[in-house]
Amino acid sequence: VFENREKMVLVMEYAAGGELYDYLSERKVLSEDEARRVFRHVASATYYCHKHKICHRDLKLENILLDLNGNAKIADFGLSNVFDEKHRLDTFCGSPLYASPEIVKGIPYTGPEVDCWSLGVLLYTLVYGAMPFDGSNFKRLVKQITQGDYYEPKKPSR
Question: What domain range is 137 assigned to?
Answer without folding.
Answer: 14-147
